[in-house]
Specification:
The complex is a heterodimer of chains A (about 350) and B (about 325).
Chain A: E1 7-14, H1 18-34, H2 40-53, E2 55-57, E3 60-64, H3 68-91, H4 95-120, E4 122-124, E5 127-131, H5 135-151, H6 157-170, E6 172-174, E7 177-181, H7 185-210, H8 230-265, E8 267-269, E9 272-276, H9 280-296, H10 302-315, E10 317-322
Antiparallel strand pairs in A: 1-2, 1-10, 2-3, 3-4, 4-5, 5-6, 6-7, 7-8, 8-9, 9-10
Helix pairs in contact in A: 1-2, 1-10, 2-3, 3-4, 4-5, 5-6, 6-7, 7-8, 8-9, 9-10
Chain B: E1 3-9, E2 16-24, E3 28-32, E4 39-41, E5 46-47, E6 56-59, E7 65-68, H1 71-82, H2 87-93, H3 95-127, H4 130-147, E8 150-151, H5 156-173, E9 180-185, E10 193-195, E11 200-204, H6 205-210, H7 214-229, H8 232-251, H9 263-291, H10 297-310, H11 325-329
Parallel strand pairs in B: 9-11
Antiparallel strand pairs in B: 1-2, 1-7, 2-3, 3-4, 5-6, 6-7, 8-9, 10-11
Classes of the chains: A alpha+beta (about 350), B alpha+beta (about 325).
């Protein structure tokens, strides 16, 4: 990078409001339930339009342009495939395994189609993003590297995740500015190692609690007829399972946040650089407290939780713009490919980074 | 007509120019940019529906876009002219309608879970032939035998006696299913009776031992036959799938971690369905006992015996799949 070129750092801002989004969300849910799910495609478009239009950078905003009908078609196809899979298993033994393999074989194709659909329908200052139709590369990454992960008993998994992120970032562009992910496979390994250590720590703590000699059967009195202290054992096992679930949850949310931050921090859009300033513990805290709030509010706090997380994530993102602020203005719209909006995103795969 | 200040994006560059937008007559829009000042007919443009506090957005032919800050005024002027009713926005914009819709949604979900879904499953199950039930249950006995059950130690005479009793029960409350009574040593599952969807009913030696009278066993066997007759396995699969689908579609657009929270209401609904099925099977048991002139107390006796050995007292009823003996005795 030419260090003599001045770099201005522009922070992203988020203007979404909980109260406003709550009202949008309630109407979405109600209409979806009343229409037995058909409205869900319109609900998704409305929701994303609101969230994207609330996201700002250098005075401009993003937007979402998908046609709800395309999304509905995609969802119906996804539902159809699911139904075929479920029913076939009960009709003819073994055929559901076959159908599962067929569905599996489509996954890389669906991934690319979804990415193309979603990027093509996302814009910043009215210029669309795009994604190259790299079907071959998708099969290479998901089945090629995926297979290697199995062969190496999981050791290659962080590398596979890096290749997947590379696939979905480095084939995207904003207008005529190509996006690129840096070579960060080593950094991916570091994150997965950290995650493994966290997992081990939690399991050790749970194990210590289990074997600390606390006699759980004392908690279940008035049951002298019982031959074995089964309630006590059940509680102990339950605690062990809870510990395992907690470990999985913590590790999963850590990895999600940490790898996303890693990818964002190493993504360039043309000459411009994305900068991610997330504090990972803070993101994990927000996600955890969100779930608690959602459970205890019977779901009513879902819109609040969404805005809260998104606000933190976006307001701690900035773009280092190479050159003057005017530079970001001179992005031209790339040639529009003929493919695109017919199918929507089947299975609604949320890829993330 | 009044003009509105706006940003104009031409769709070729990520840059905007400040312009003024004027509504001309009842069918045209002019963009005064100080140069060409193009005019567009309403049927050429798309006015995006009002959403939140954001600027009004007009999409122009050729990929251009207008963002008008004074959204309220602009929409008030143009919506009636382009025939946009703004119904969804109106529903969203006042707390009263939101509260009403929230109440409506809650009522609909409650009605769906408690009435709609069970009714739909009951109807659908009627359309499914009995042969499908057989397929669902086919593998189950082999799996149970491999992992949990051992051969029965009851004498051949005793088995013949119970088989005869079972035939009487099937004659009274059975149906087209191919009912068969099989005997096993329960082992890990202890004193128990299981009904497979195909019509196979498993009776464990431990339960035979626990029962104080053969009429208690008759009650339990009739209960199990009830499960098969009422297609509970099939209906459970249908209902649980529908509930899961409902929960996912309601909370769906939240993100994978938060959808964990959707699992809790699903679990509660499934347990409630399980209790309803148990009650239905209990009804079949009581029907049989009445028809055979057996004291219904026999059934309660056996349940009580089972509970006292398995330490059920005190377990919260909400999480239990089976109604307690106290509840069941209230049946008659």
């Amino acid at each position: 990078m030419d260090s003599s070129v001045a770099q201005t750092s522009e922070s992203m801002t988020f203007s979404g409001q909980s109260g406003e989004y709550f009202r949008i969300w309630i109407v979405n849910v109600c209409l979806t339930v009343v229409t037995l799910g058909i409205y869900s495609a319109w609900a998704k478009v409305r929701r994303l339009k609101y969230l994207y239009r609330s996201t700002h950078l250098a005075g401009g905003s993003f937007d979402y342009h998908a046609a709800p009908v395309a999304i509905l078609k995609g969802r119906l196809i996804g539902l159809g495939a699911l139904a075929v899979y479920l029913i076939s298993g009960n009709l003819l033994y073994g055929i559901d395994a076959l159908i599962f393999l067929v569905i599996l074989a489509f996954i890389p194709w669906v991934l690319v189609r979804s990415r193309m659909f979603n990027m093509r329908n996302t814009s910043y200052q009215n210029i669309r993003f795009s994604f190259k139709p790299v079907y071959g590369r998708a099969y290479e990454v998901i089945f090629g590297y995926g297979l290697l992960v199995g062969i190496t008993l999981g050791i290659l998994y962080p590398y596979y995740r890096y290749k997947r992120s590379d696939l979905i970032v480095s084939n995207a562009s904003f207008g005529n500015l190509p996006m690129q992910l840096g070579a960060i496979s080593r950094e991916f390994y570091v994150k997965y190692l950290q995650a493994t250590l966290i997992f081990i720590l939690i399991m050790v703590l749970s194990g210590m609690l289990l074997t600390s000699g606390i006699d759980f059967s004392e908690l279940f009195s008035g049951n002298e007829k019982s031959a074995d202290s089964s309630p006590g054992t059940v509680f102990g096992v339950g605690l062990g399972v809870a510990g395992l679930l907690l470990a999985y949850f913590v590790v999963f949310s850590f990895l999600r946040a940490a790898t996303t931050k890693l990818v964002l921090n190493n993504t360039t859009v043309g000459e411009h650089k994305i900068q991610c300033h997330w504090n990972i513990s803070r993101v994990m805290f927000i996600q955890t407290s969100n779930i608690v709030a959602i459970v205890f509010s019977a779901g009513l706090l879902i819109p609040w939780a969404t805005i809260r997380l998104r606000r933190y994530q976006i307001e701690n993102l900035s773009i280092a713009i190479a050159g003057r602020i005017d530079e970001i203005m001179a992005v031209q719209s790339a040639e529009v490919s003929a493919l695109g909006d017919e199918l929507g995103d089947v299975f609604d795969i949320d890829i993330g980074l | 007509m009044t003009g509105y200040s706006a940003r104009y994006f031409d769709g070729r560059m990520a840059a905007f120019r400040p312009v003024r937008v004027h509504v001309i007559g009842a069918d045209r829009l002019q963009v005064r940019d100080g140069a060409q000042n193009p005019v567009f007919r309403f049927d050429e443009i798309t006015v995006q529906r009002r959403l939140g506090h954001h600027p009004a957005i007009v999409e122009l032919p050729g990929g251009g876009r207008l963002e008008i800050e004074a959204a309220d005024e602009f929409h008030a002027a143009i919506d009636p002219l382009v025939g946009s009713k703004g119904l969804v926005f109106w529903l969203e914009s006042n707390w009263l309608t939101v509260a009403l819709l929230l109440a409506l949604t809650a009522a609909l979900i409650w009605a769906a879970v408690n009435y709609g879904i069970p009714a739909a499953a009951r109807q659908a199950a009627r359309a499914v032939p009995v042969s499908v039930d057989t397929m669902i249950g086919e593998e189950s006995l082999q799996i149970l035998d491999s992992y949990m059950l051992a051969p029965s130690e009851l004498t051949a005479a005793r088995r013949a006696q119970l088989t005869g009793m079972f035939a009487g029960i099937v004659a009274q409350v059975g149906d087209k299913h191919d009912f068969r009574l099989v005997f096993r040593k329960g082992g890990k599952i202890g004193a128990n009776a299981l009904a497979l969807p195909s019509g196979v009913v498993i009776l464990t030696d431990e339960l035979e031992l626990l029962a104080g009278h053969d009429e208690e066993l008759a009650a339990v066997l009739a209960h199990e036959v009830g499960h098969a007759v009422h297609r509970h396995a099939l209906r459970a699969i249908m209902q649980n799938s529908l509930v899961a689908g409902l929960m996912v579609s309601v909370t769906g657009d939240v993100g994978s971690i938060s959808s964990l929270a959707a699992g809790i209401p699903t679990l509660l609904a499934e347990r409630s369905y399980s209790r309803d099925f148990e009650r239905e099977a209990d009804d079949v048991a009581y029907d049989y006992l009445r028809a055979a002139n057996i004291d219904p107390q026999r059934f309660v006796d056996l349940i009580t015996r089972l509970e006292s050995t398995q330490g059920r007292a005190g377990t919260s009823n909400l999480l239990a799949t089976h109604p307690s003996a106290a509840e069941r005795s209230r049946q008659d």
